[in-house]
Write a structure and sequence with these properties.
The complex is a heterodimer of chains A (about 400) and B (about 280). Chain A has about 400 residues and is mainly α. In chain A, about 45% of the residues lie in helices and about 0% in strands. Chain A is elongated. Chain B has about 280 residues and is mainly alpha-helical. Chain B has a single domain (about 10-280), classed as Fumarate Reductase Cytochrome B subunit (Up-down Bundle), CATH 1.20.950. Chain B is about 70% helix and about 5% strand. Chain B has helices spanning about 20-40, 45-55, 60-90, 105-120, 135-160, 160-165, 170-200, 210-215, 220-225, 225-235, 235-240, 250-279, and strands spanning about 10-15, 215, 240-245. In chain B, helix 1 crosses helix 2 (about 45-55), helix 1 crosses helix 7 (about 170-200) and helix 3 packs across helix 5. Classes of the chains: A mainly alpha (about 400), B mainly alpha (about 280). At the A-B interface, helix 19 and helix 22 of A face helix 1, helix 2, helix 3, helix 4 and helix 5 of B.
Amino acid sequence: MRARPATVEIPQPPAGAPAAAQPTLTNDDCFGCHDDDSAARADGTPVVVKPATIEHSIHATIDCVDCHQDVATAEMPHAETLQKVDCASCHSDAADLFKVSAHAKARDGGSVVAASCVDCHGTHDIRPKTDPESTTHHLNIAATCASCHGNAEIIARGDLPRDMTRDFADSIHGVVLEKSGLMVAPTCSSCHGAHDIRPPKDPESRVGVGNLASTCGTCHEGVARQFEGGIHAAVLETGATNAPACQTCHTSHSVQRSESHGWQLSVINQCGTCHAERMSTFRDTFHGQVSALGSRSAAGCADCHGAHEILPASDPRSPIAPANLVKTCGQCHENANANFVKFDPHADKHDRARNPALYYTSKFMIVLLSGVFGAFGLHTMLWLGKEVRLKRGRRGTSDTR
Amino acid sequence: MTVDPIPRASRHIIRFSRTDRLMHGFLMFSFLGLALTGLPLLFSHAPWASWLARMLGGVTVAGVLHRFFAVILIGVFVLHVARLFRRVIGEKDYSVFWGPSSMVPQPRDLRDLQGHVRWFLGRGPRPAFERYTYWEKFDYWAVFWGMAIIGGSGLMLWFPEQFSRVLPGWVFNIALVVHGEEALLAVGFIFTIHFFNGHLRPEKFPMDMVIFTGSVPESELQHERAAEYDRLRESGDLERLEVPPPSPSTWRLGRAVGTIALTIGTALVILIIFALITT
């Protein structure tokens, strides 16, 4: 028995009609022509439909003319060009959802490449998404979407977003989906939805910044809850679109394992895209220098600030709240004490108010270095000039000393 | 090679003892090592930094090597100070504090500097220098000061948890800046000014062999350190200080070591300049 979505409106014979009433045209009638391997239009394009295809499809129980309604009353042989099949006549819920999608809007705008029902679901061979051979089976969706979104020609013709299918395949989501075959791994529709895929800029989009935490939170519920307690979520709630949501740090299609050192190092720069000044002072410290050289042996942003539930130092729950510093620094520096945490991990040698001692030390060093190099640079230049002149003169007079 | 590079025509006068040369050898070795392993961190933003760190075996290995070289250099420093103490206390040799064998700056050095600059400008004769010239004393004190400052701040950064028992954490902010800037001063100075004064200037090019062989031809001593030469001749010490010319193996070893050191140093200077102008 096949599960059937509850929303499908199964065509019923008109009320009062005899139960045994037969359609005017049976499938057998259709196969009379379409089962023939040579069935083709005048221009040669084949119109072969094998009974087996229909039998294996979810539509095996309905008749050809239930979809091709205009054929039911047509004279045979029917016209070459039939009306478009209207899936909405049964699947009105899906069709309603589809109407608001980016695909539907592109079609309305005249696009001929934007997906309609059949581009994802197929035609005569439509199988339920529970069928491993279905184009909409969880493990096949990425390939189905990639047939357009990974096709350079269609991308160009339809002005689609850049090809992200390979990014996805290399991401942790893509790897566990395709290599490990995990049904719990997300595929395209897990984040974007299926029928009502909206562009990310649409505030109602599942992948819009305002909705991402709840979309990712469908699987990463614990992380979403942490994120919602943090400062970034609080800023997002004010409607700010430049505040970071999940994909700002994790990327949308190239999500990496958070344990990977490469990712941990690259996300530091991600923090720096907004926190530029903090980033530059971080890079001035040992932590930042070691990280810049590609080592994870020193602290990066998240090691002190936390990752999802980032809170300002003024919040007593924050790992960088003054009362928590000994513990936070102590994660790496075992014997950290109250003195130790007076270290400023974002010290700015140009900021006299924040780091006066450092400011004057730095100024002194500049004077010292320029003084020494200036004086000895001049000394060296004069000396070089003299010895060059001496050598030339000696050569001229063939004097040895 | 057709020409014997070792100057045998002249008598050779000993200038640096075997211990002096060995100490300078360890100083060179550890200093070059410290520069190589430290510069990637100081110029971590430069494109060559992560490459150099990888060549050294990664940041962690570079860090271990840096501390290894630091221990050697601290050892050289401690041994040097101990030898000074032995001269003063053990041998009652107070020439350490004043006179031609002393590194202490003296009025003569100021006069030599003036005379030298006048000579540069063609307004006077080359000054008759003594055993240690003013620029050599500057080299010496630069290293001495550098050892204290770079070594001290380096130890703080190596053992921050221990130092924080007595020092507030912001001292480490200062220690990091001082360690880096002083190191830049030391590296920049040694690999440009010291290299030029000691080795690369036309009269010495490509290098002065005295730090490797220990001895200097009499004619060279007379030309470069006329005051010392006259003093030694008058006191009769010149004969006592005469040694055989350096052996070919010593000469070859010196050339090799000197060439390697000059090459590494010059390469590092180029990397530093590249990093400074591209940021």
